[in-house]
Write a structure and sequence with these properties.
Radius of gyration: 23 Å
Number of helices: 2
Strand order of the largest sheet: 1-7-6-5-4-3-2
Order of helices and strands: EHEEEEEEH
Structural class: alpha+beta
Number of strands: 7
Distance between the termini: 64 Å
């Protein structure tokens, strides 16, 4: 039966609907196939080499609640009350969002976080910042994010994150 909870995973050749009796006065409504929709992830990415020591840059990146201290697009950034691994942000154009820190590795100088609350048409947003030494006085920083767009392939939204958030932030971080 098509609504049988025992048949959650369709199998080729065995996913045919069985005929159901139609009583007088009833209409049989067509049913959409119950196949999970596979949605692809979109990716945003920016990279910059900086004339700053990796340790100095990492100290700024690692201070998760203090994003507004170095990112010009963030008007305010504060630790969520009772949880320093969650930050509440307000952008300079008034957008409010909450981000949760998922992982920090001080040895590899990587930080991973995701959206906890946001107004964007996407799900499963996961971002990563990575700082790499390039000698004693230089470093490179890569900022990436993957997400599932609500519609389409997410290319336009990825471009907005790249140009409006990542590149702007890395340029400011590079100036120190």
């Amino acid at each position: 039966m098509p609504n049988d909870p025992q048949r959650q995973n369709p199998q080729p050749g065995r996913d045919l609907q069985q005929a159901q009796p139609v009583l007088p006065g009833q209409r049989r409504e067509p049913q959409a196939p119950q196949h999970p929709q596979q949605q692809r992830y979109a990716e945003a990415r920016a990279h910059r080499v900086m004339d700053r020591a990796a340790d100095a840059v990492w100290r700024e990146v690692r201070d998760f609640p203090a994003l507004a201290a170095w990112h010009p697009g963030i008007a305010s950034s504060t630790a969520h009350p009772g949880n320093p691994r969650v930050r509440d942000l307000v952008t300079t154009d008034g957008i409010r969002l909450t981000e949760a820190l998922h992982a920090v590795d001080d040895t590899l100088m990587t930080l991973e976080y995701g959206f906890a609350a946001h107004p964007f048409p996407l799900t499963d947003y996961r971002a990563r910042m990575e700082v790499r030494p390039e000698g004693d006085t230089r470093c490179s920083v890569t900022w990436t994010a993957t997400f599932r767009p609500a519609e389409g392939d997410g290319a336009a939204l990825a471009a907005q994150f790249e140009a409006g958030v990542f590149v702007v932030g890395l340029e400011a971080l590079g100036r120190g």
